[in-house]
Amino acid sequence: MTIPQNLKTIGLTPFSYHANEPLFRINAGVPVIEALTHASNLLHVAKMLASDAAMDRETDRHAWASYFLQDMSKAIIDDVVKVLEAPGNNRGADVVS
Description:
By secondary structure, the chain is an alpha+beta fold. It contains 2 helices and 4 strands, in the order βββααβ.
């Protein structure tokens, strides 16, 4: 898959809701490749925490930490998908492989 180098997050994706209101939003202007790298790192840590949570039944702190990291990761990926699906972003110029 190739991603144009000039694509950046658009900052339309909220996450971490309280009373149906988002507490946070993805920032606009982050290069897509950096955003995806960050999401991958968050998901890696979330996976490790989920594994710990499965082994330690005495506390749920690992499970909640994993849950919030997954929430952040999903928001990043959803924001990147909005950019990639936007009209005009399927150009062949400025493409990295």
